[in-house]
Automatic annotation (TrEMBL):
It is found in: Nucleus. Keywords: Nucleus. It comes from the Eukaryota. PANTHER family: REGULATOR OF MICROTUBULE DYNAMICS PROTEIN, TESTIS-EXPRESSED PROTEIN 10. Residues 73-168 form the Pre-rRNA-processing protein Ipi1 N-terminal domain. Belongs to the IPI1/TEX10 family. It comes from Cirrhinus mrigala. Its main location: nucleus. This is Pre-rRNA-processing protein Ipi1 N-terminal domain-containing protein. GO terms for cellular component: nucleus.
Amino acid sequence: DLLSKLHHVNSNIKQGALVGLRELLSAQPTLIELHASAVLSEVAALFTDKDGSVRAAAVRLLRFIAQCIPAERVAPFFPLLSAHLTCAMTHISEAIQEDALRVLDALLEHYPGLLSQRHTVLLTNFLELISQKRKSGTGQDKSGKGGFALTISTSRKVTAQQWRLTVLL
């Protein structure tokens, strides 16, 4: 019932379902591993939800689940998590992009090895999020070819977070 409510139109119902899932999984920890596939796929789908409170609740639930499931049990589902994270990181909404960095933070904290296996796409998206591409003044880089320069975006709320160094390392 709680998983089906995650598809509801009303954001309050989705948020309530996420809180209910966390309570249920806290009370019955064996359910986490039994239903890891369903729970992780449903939570990951909410990384791009239009409501910020739903995304925040999804990140909190993801953090809770990540504390309970080791990396080797999450590995089969990680491509799906990574795909949803990529969608959030490249979303048109800046609020969703910034929340994607919170998802990345949670995954980095609990599953750094799994993230490093998918570094090609995730690192590119990460650099895009913490910086901004600017066309060089002449439209050419030092080699004479057209190019872009990456600079840190000061308008981002999350640029000062220390974990960026960990991601880059």
